[in-house]
Design brief:
Blueprint lengths: L4 E7 L7 E7 L18 H18 L6 E6 L2 E6 L17 E2 L2 E9 L4 H7 L18 E12 L7 E2 L1 H8 L3 H24 L3 E11 L5 E4 L9 E4 L2 E3 L2 H7 L3 H11 L15 H19 L9 H16 L1
Antiparallel strand pairs: 1-2, 2-4, 3-4, 5-9, 6-7, 6-9, 7-8, 9-10, 9-11, 11-12
Helix pairs in contact: 1-7, 7-8
Amino acid sequence: MGSVKDLAVQKPATAEETGVGVFKFTDDYSVFDFGKMPDVIPGKGEALCRMAAYNFQELEKLGIKSHFRKLVSGNEMEVDLVRVLFPQKGELKEGMVNYLVPLEVIFRNILPEGSSVFKRLSNGQTTPEKLGLSKMPQPGERLAQPIMDVSTKLEPSDRYLSWEEASEIACLSKEEVGELKGKALKVNDFLTKRAEEIGLEHADGKVEFAMSPKRELILVDVCGTLDEDRFLFHGMHVSKQILRDYYKTTPWYSVIEREKAEGKGHGQFTIPEKLPPELVEITANMYKSVCEEWTGKKQWNAPSIGEVMQSYKSFLEKGAK
């Protein structure tokens, strides 16, 4: 459940048994942890839902189990539910089963402009060596091998962790951490290959896992959508990043950055402006187009990815004049 996805619990999870829920993907969007923004992107929810369902089904064929049960409608999917236990409250203990692993695992294949890696490198939060790199990376750099980060999931603000800290917080053994990394890389490989097949590059993304009642690691939430991952088309972002990039040009962005720095939260003291109607249409077409080409099923007869990105390029050029 979040700013852009609702959850209806049909059967709660217990200590030893999964529950059942239905995710409803809305046309809302969120950037910079602000919460629901003032516009909607028509068709976005259905596009995300259909892409996520496709990915779960294909990953199942590759041996990656998940909590996906079935697609209920265009923007709704039925899933198994696990318990959400907060480590900071002492709720999660070693040997437990049927719980959300309180981590986000981030994989990176390319370091595009806007990647959080550069901000962390510049302020000393990490080093090239800690990221598994031999030198300072440059924006747009394509990595010879994917690198992985891990962050908290159930804290007020996500923070990056070492794998040792992640193991302790999530009550995972060394072997289970290795298995989690392996599954994340397998997901990344699948998404990277699928992106290439439709003319995109898979820059980065994230996955989440749970421990099943049998203490098996299973994939949960969603993965490989334009909200969870960043894709590129000839160097141009094809993801929610285009909305972040737009808002970075507005006065609202500097205000929320200042409020965060002052400890006032995530911008709730100021209201963001609406998107230009032209950008709403371009973004809607982007979500629909990628979904259609990714899944191989026409739902909207959207323009091609190339046509959408040409429209976006023209929009940017008009704004620069």
